[in-house]
Amino acid sequence: MTEGAPPHRLRRLSDEEIALWTEVARSVSRRRGAILPAPAKPVQPKPAAPPAPPAIPEAKPAKFRAPPLAPLERRLKRDLARGRGAIDDALDLHGMTQAEAHQALRGFLRRAQSRGARLVIVVTGKGGPLGGLDRWDDERGVLKRLTPHWLRDPDLRPIVLGFEEAGRAHGGSGALYVRLRRAH
């Protein structure tokens, strides 16, 4: 404490605070010898508001909830790793700009779903060096980083059931297995 500073004083709890603390303290076992403070005056419960007339619900537009993503099943991942799983189609995003890759991915997934595909692979690449330009290192692997975000977008959720990094035989961290929902 610095010199000249007034000593710290504890304030008295209000009756409402004491009543609230008493309710909380009842939910735990007491410590031996502990005494609960008593309120100076009994706290009266607040009068309940008169019941409101039943409101007519307004017609609100139904809020679209994107279906949740599901991980690939363990058996499917094992079969894919052993070369037994059937990949229905593939998309290679190498050499595309972000905008081109995003449009290509959206179109590819829609077409694959309409054809009845259940599992596709999307090759993003691993984001190798860009001609030795160290100043661009933070821009390496842009499509690899963005593709999972695009697959989680609400507009693709009716198409994408789930996705995971591909096995080593299919490109490893430079590719994604994408499970598609059945077309309605």
TrEMBL record:
The keyword Chaperone does not apply. SMART domains: SMR. Keywords: Endonuclease, Hydrolase, Nuclease. SUPFAM superfamilies: SMR domain-like. Residues 91-181 form the Smr domain. The keyword Transmembrane helix does not apply. Residues 39-56 have a biased composition (Pro residues). One of its GO terms (molecular function) is endonuclease activity. This is DNA-nicking Smr family endonuclease. It comes from Roseiarcus fermentans. The lineage of its organism: Bacteria, Pseudomonadati, Pseudomonadota, Alphaproteobacteria, Hyphomicrobiales.
